[in-house]
């Protein structure tokens, strides 16, 4: 699951990485995104202070603010067996919103294990969920899959299984996200590249439709710095935000314990995104564990906007303690968190540090 998934995966990943040839999809014109501005935009309102953790025991969070005025939330459940959905007109409201199960893993065969890192997107008038899963009989053969729902309300209608996103290799892959730029739709994801001594790098391709890559695919980053290689050599969980004439792609690195952290790639908005040279990589992590605020392993993030329609918001998961007994993947306490994303004077994102938990009435009184 992207970002949250990692550990055993990575342990077994290099054993079974099989190269399966090039993309078979026929190149076609990439589907353009339906701009939010074309629909009725939600009215700006003043946002309340964020309450953290926002949603407990939900890792790899993804929040989509739709033109209907709702925030739609999905994330990895610690049982790794289902895809959940919540919605609220406020970010804080997601913490207490009713949760619906919109899809459950198969009892056998494909999509039968390790349901990880779902993301919900609205594309061409339909809803799509991208997620990672493995066959029930081979639980580390994790791949990227897509669901589709034509109903305007994603809590209704039928979620159709559109199948696996076929990449250049039949290897461990996960954490897919999609975005549009200059009329083209792209998919970014994490995958093990055959022949490389790592677990996962991050790749990019244009899309022919919401479940088909049109190729080629390019590698944007592979673990190379020490902070990307603690426990496991991992780059995963990409997320994109476009601001100030540039595209910024955050990603997560290292094992999913307190060493988990975030890096950043940057490209000029006028550059060819499919040229790896267009992307520069920050040599230091941009978001890390913090002993003062007692937040550990922050990562697998996404971006959204506050109720005012202007303030950028960072969404991520973290634990409230540093030491973990046993495998981090078996620890359920990665909680969804939100905080304001600030910007430096040079137009680059200022992630700051993971904020402390919101004080409860009891804590304030004491």
Give structural notes:
With 366 residues, this protein is mainly beta. 3% of the residues lie in helices and 41% in strands. The chain has 2 helices and 21 strands. The chain has helices at 7-13, 361-365; strands at residues 59-65, 71-76, 82-88, 100-104, 113-123, 126-134, 143-149, 160-164, 173-181, 184-191, 201-209, 212-221, 235-243, 246-253, 261-268, 279-281, 296-305, 312-319, 335-340, 342-343, 349-350. The strands form 6 sheets. It has a 4-stranded antiparallel β-sheet with strand order 1-2-3-4, with no helix packed on it. Strand 20 and strand 21 (349-350) form a beta hairpin. The longest helix has 7 residues, at 7-13. The chain starts with 6 loop residues before the first helix and ends with a helix.
Q: What is the H-and-E element order? A: HEEEEEEEEEEEEEEEEEEEEEH
Q: Report the sheet with the most strands, covering strand number, pairing sense and barrel closure.
A: 4 strands, antiparallel
Helix content range? under 10%
Shape: globular
Mean pLDDT: 89
Tell me the distance between the termini: 39 Å
The proportion of residues in beta strands is 35-45%
The number of distinct helices, counting runs of at least 4 residues, comes to 2
Structural class: mainly beta
Indicate the radius of gyration in whole angstroms: 19 Å
Numbering strands along the chain, what is their spatial order in the largest sheet? 1-2-3-4
Low-confidence segments: 1-41, 361-366
The overall strand count is 21
């Amino acid at each position: 699951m992207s970002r949250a998934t990692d550990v055993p995966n990575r342990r077994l990943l290099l054993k079974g990485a099989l190269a399966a040839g090039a993309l078979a999809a026929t190149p076609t014109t990439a589907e353009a995104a339906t701009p939010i501005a074309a629909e009725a935009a939600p009215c700006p309102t003043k946002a309340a202070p964020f309450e953290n953790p926002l949603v407990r025991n939900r890792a790899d969070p993804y929040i989509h603010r739709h033109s209907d005025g709702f925030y739609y939330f999905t994330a990895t459940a610690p049982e790794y067996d289902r895809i959940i959905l919540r919605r609220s007109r406020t970010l804080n409201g997601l913490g207490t919103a009713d949760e619906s199960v919109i899809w459950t893993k198969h009892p056998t065969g494909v999509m039968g294990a390790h349901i990880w890192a779902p993301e919900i997107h609205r594309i061409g008038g339909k809803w799509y969920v991208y997620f990672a899963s493995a066959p029930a009989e081979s639980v580390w053969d994790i791949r990227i899959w897509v669901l589709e729902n034509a109903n305007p309300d994603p809590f209704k209608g039928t979620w159709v299984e559109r199948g696996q996103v076929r990449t250049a290799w039949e290897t461990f892959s996960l954490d897919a996200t999609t975005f549009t730029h200059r009329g083209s739709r792209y998919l970014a994801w994490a995958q093990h590249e055959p022949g490389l001594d790592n677990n996962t790098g991050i790749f990019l391709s244009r899309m022919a439709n919401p479940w088909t890559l049109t190729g080629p695919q390019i590698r944007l980053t592979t673990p190379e710095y020490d902070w990307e290689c603690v426990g496991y050599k991992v780059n995963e969980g990409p997320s994109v935000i476009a601001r100030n004439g540039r595209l910024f792609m955050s990603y997560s690195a290292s094992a999913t314990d307190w060493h988990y952290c975030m890096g950043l790639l940057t490209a000029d908005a006028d550059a060819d995104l499919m040229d790896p040279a267009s992307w520069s990589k920050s040599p230091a992590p941009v978001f890390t564990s913090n002993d003062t605020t007692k937040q550990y392993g922050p990562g697998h993030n996404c971006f959204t906007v506050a109720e005012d329609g202007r303030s950028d918001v960072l969404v991520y998961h973290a634990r409230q303690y540093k030491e973990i007994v046993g495998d981090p993947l078996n620890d359920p306490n990665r909680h969804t968190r939100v905080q304001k994303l600030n910007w430096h004077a040079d137009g680059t994102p200022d992630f700051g540090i993971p904020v402390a938990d919101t004080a409860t009435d009891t804590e304030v009184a004491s």
